[in-house]
Design goal:
single chain, 142 residues, six-stranded antiparallel β-sheet, three-stranded antiparallel β-sheet, 3 helices, 9 strands, 39% strand
């Protein structure tokens, strides 16, 4: 019956919007391996909880990396965990290129900044007209 109880807890976690699996600590990274084998790497902003009996214990990636058993093994590795990953912010930038040569003049955080830069630029640089292209993507951590 313990297996059925664990399965019900995992189902409840998934329905609550968590990613579930086993926590792993490897080569200075922390991740969760899902039941289908997929590995997701976790960052500082992700909310991680490991199940300790019937309770959930919050764990940071730093905790997972530094907490060790007396034998020196990662303390939280292999434990059932549930994670809510932080929202990734969508980033929009404007690329400016020449309509004839297709050379990129620059990338700016807004159309207004791009237009200001083009207005201040050396007019001899341009063979054609400036082309403004909006690029969208997900920001990254450095």
């Amino acid at each position: 019956m313990i297996f059925l109880s664990d399965h019900m807890k995992e189902t409840a976690d998934i329905m609550a919007g968590y990613i579930t699996g086993r926590l792993f600590v490897e080569n200075g990274t922390v991740g969760i391996q899902r039941s289908n084998g997929q590995e997701l790497y976790l960052g500082e902003g992700d909310h991680i909880e490991v199940r300790n009996g019937d309770e959930y214990q919050p764990v940071t990636t730093w905790d997972a990396l530094t907490a060790k058993t007396v034998e020196g093994w990662p303390l939280y590795a292999g434990l059932y965990a549930r994670v809510k990953q932080m929202e990734k912010e969508t980033l929009t930038v404007v690329e400016v290129s020449d309509s004839v040569t297709k050379l990129i003049y620059g990338i700016y955080f807004s159309r207004e900044l791009a237009e200001q830069a083009v207005a201040k630029s050396d007019k001899n640089w341009w063979s054609g007209e400036p082309v403004y292209k909006e690029l969208k993507g997900v920001s990254c951590e450095i």
